[in-house]
């Protein structure tokens, strides 16, 4: 019983500190490219940590909005993002493995504005047994997101298609 009250007290302190607008510790660093879903989680971890160069690098050659500055500027008003991932499908084609990753995003912007996005990422890796150094892990091949209605769990697409 005592441990439960300590946990509840700690949660109350955490809630109070975020209400008072105190600086919060950044999310732990995550850079996992072991599959398509892990790659997308890492992308949004980088965005939450404001590590836009790392986030931008996950796109490989298929850059989402041209130059890095435009990409980073797109998050200028973003305070935090939350990603939910649906059922990932994978398929092989021409020496590559593709992962279609359905996502829903909840974005919190300055002044408390909340926005939702829904869509699909397609991640690609050249079959690891066929690669020679330097090894190239999963990279984002395409990204298709559009504004959506919340809540976040209802915004996740049922499926996405790999190329």
Describe, in plain words, how this protein is organized in 3D.
The protein has one domain: Roll (Nuclear Transport Factor 2, Chain: A), CATH 3.10.450. Strands 1, 2, 3, 4 and 5 form a five-stranded antiparallel sheet that branches. With 163 residues, the protein is α+β, with helices and mostly antiparallel strands. Strand 2 and strand 3 form a beta hairpin. It contains five helices and five strands. The N terminus is likely disordered. The longest helix is centred in the first third of the chain and has 18 residues.
Which helices and strands, and how do they pair?
Layout: H1 2-19, H2 36-48, H3 52-57, H4 68-73, E1 78-85, E2 89-93, E3 96-109, E4 114-126, E5 139-148, H5 152-155
Antiparallel strand pairs: 1-3, 2-3, 3-4, 4-5
């Amino acid at each position: 019983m005592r441990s439960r009250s300590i946990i509840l007290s700690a949660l109350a302190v955490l809630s109070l500190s975020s209400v008072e607008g105190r600086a919060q510790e950044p999310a732990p660093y995550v850079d996992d490219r072991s599959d398509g879903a892990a790659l997308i989680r890492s992308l949004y971890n980088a965005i939450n940590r404001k590590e836009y160069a790392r986030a931008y690098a996950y796109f490989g050659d298929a850059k989402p909005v041209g130059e890095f500055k435009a990409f980073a500027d797109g998050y200028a008003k973003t305070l935090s993002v939350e990603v939910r991932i649906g059922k990932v499908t994978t398929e092989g084609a021409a020496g590559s493995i593709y992962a279609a990753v359905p996502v829903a995003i909840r974005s919190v912007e300055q002044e408390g504005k909340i926005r939702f996005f829904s869509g699909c990422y397609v991640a690609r890796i050249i079959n690891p047994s066929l690669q020679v150094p330097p090894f190239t892990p999963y990279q984002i091949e395409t990204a298709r997101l559009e504004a959506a209605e919340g809540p976040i769990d209802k915004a996740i697409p049922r499926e996405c298609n790999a190329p």
